Sequence to fold (171 residues):
Amino acid sequence: MKIKMITASIVFILLVPFIFGGCSRAANDEGFAIYLTKNNVPVQEMQALSHVDIANKPLISGDDIIAYYWDTHDIQLTAEAFKRVDALQIPTTGVAFVVCVDKQPVYWGAFWAGYSSQSFDGITIMMKPSLAGDNRIAITPGYPSSSFYQGNDPRSYQVIKDSLKAAGKLN
Fold:
């Protein structure tokens, strides 16, 4: 009888973290987020790097997203988040960002200025002009048009869709 009690106690102690672990979010379980790079890595160096450190906090977190429009990859942001993005000083060579799910990089791109005369063969985020004032940004391939993009389009990766759907942000 004593052995059964000891065995049951050990099993209980070992199972507690698994039983109650789902009740709290892990520190890196933040879902979809867009980060700037640590030390502001220049866009032209991003592709050559095997590893890029992301900033300590996301520029855009899941809490900042009102809706993610999967068919167009437009993101409607809260007013505060839109102001943060709009306040970025974007040179004509862009500002690198990293799209992450649970702090794991999925793909990189660059915030790009609509007045830039330089083309870009990468994923861009542009402020989307809107008369309705709905605070949207657009994630698009290539600049000034998608014809300048030559790679595989990473915006539709399933891990991104699953994360946005789980957060209730997917439209």
Observations:
- The beta strands are 32-36, 65-69, 74-77, 95-101, 104-111, 120-127, 136-143.
- The chain has one domain: 26-166.
- The radius of gyration is 20 Å.
